[in-house]
Amino acid sequence: MRANCCSRSVHPANGSEEELPVGLQAHGDLGLVFTVASAVMMGLLMFSLGCSVEIRKLWLHIQRPWGIAVGLLCQFGLMPLIAYLLAVSFTLKPVQAIAVLIMGCCPGGTISNIFTFWVDGDMDLSISMTTCSTVAALGMMPLCLYLYTWSWNLAQNLTIPYQSIGITLVCLIIPVAFGICVNFKWPKQSKVILKVGAVVGALLLLLVAVAGVVLARGSWHSDTTLLTISFVFPFIGHVAGFLLALLTRQSWQRCRTISLETGAQNIQMCITMLQLSFTAEYLVQMFSFPLAYGLFQLLDGFLIVAAYQTYKRRLKNKQRRRDPEHVEGCPKQRSTSPKETRAFLEVKEEAAGALGPSGPTDGHVASGEQCAPAGLAAPLSPAASKGGAGQRHESHW
């Protein structure tokens, strides 16, 4: 297997634009506008998500990279293995099996950062995992591809898109670094930027989903086997990532984050590698898989977000019905901020999940302050009770 960095214009497999099928040809100004617009929006989105990252928590993840290690194990341990088992189980053609395996060996995509934000996940861990998996892909992608294709006697050489990996790192690290600086110096303004970024993220996902189907409409084929794999693959990745995080006793917040990071792959990197490695004849048979995978991982992500938001709303309503007098009698709890609501949810999840992970939560610790009923004094601490007893003893004498 060959692992070199070369551009599409000089690669022998795709040397001429005329050799590509209609669905894979460049679409002129529309394709250029889509590429530039998506790149600009992705940069703004990562800048806004960087505004949610705290330097202190990010440094803690670097000092104790247990969550990052679990994420990397899911990314380059579980996903390539799942891809190989799916390719063998469905008895795919060699070319199609390679497309599935390449998708499983790709690093995590930035789409996972958007979904992590919407499910109140650990943004510091999510961005750290995306960055570390992209850096690790420089060595892990060729290693995993070599190990899993060794028994296939593959005649076609595979080209690792090092240039694409480098561009992804630059587009990820620089905007996030600016966002972290803004959050450190202007925390109030960073909250506004974060809200705007959530709207930009929704628009970006819609743009990518629609434009991806329109620009590559000629590459869609009615291969039910590949469509079935593209449907179950991201779902299995989400479930396997969640279960591994659960077995390693991560917090619920980290479990959600690792699950989303595992199932969300870098689709653009997979497409780039296919274009660099195969001729137009083979691309016709395999190009529909990464497109379908991208659409289904979007669908899975939206379903996970909808399920979490429903659970969050039901949990808050259940707490409100369980203790309405306490909620009404305590003015401080009526006006809770969104951050306090997320912290309350994390505490409730830890308390409710007795069989779940017992690792330390990454959310803020909810305050244990309670409102005393009217007409009753608040209980004194042991020290205060002892002091009060001493004062009564002196007055008696």
Written description of the protein model:
With 397 residues, this protein is mainly α. Helices cover 72% and strands 0% of the residues. The N terminus and C terminus are likely disordered.
Explain the layout of strands and helices:
Layout: H1 28-50, H2 55-63, H3 66-89, H4 94-105, H5 111-118, H6 123-149, H7 162-185, H8 187-215, H9 224-247, H10 252-263, H11 267-277, H12 280-286, H13 288-322, H14 324-329, H15 331-334, H16 338-352, H17 382-396
Helix pairs in contact: 1-7, 1-8, 3-4, 3-6, 3-9, 3-10, 4-6, 5-6, 5-8, 5-10, 5-13, 6-7, 6-10, 7-8, 8-13, 9-10, 9-13
Count, helices = 17
Query: H/E order of the elements?
Result: HHHHHHHHHHHHHHHHH
Query: Low-confidence runs (pLDDT<50, min 5 residues)?
Result: 1-29, 327-341, 350-397
Number of strands: 0
Rg, Å, rounded: 25 Å
Characterize the overall form: globular
The profile of the biggest β sheet is: none
Give the overall average pLDDT.
74
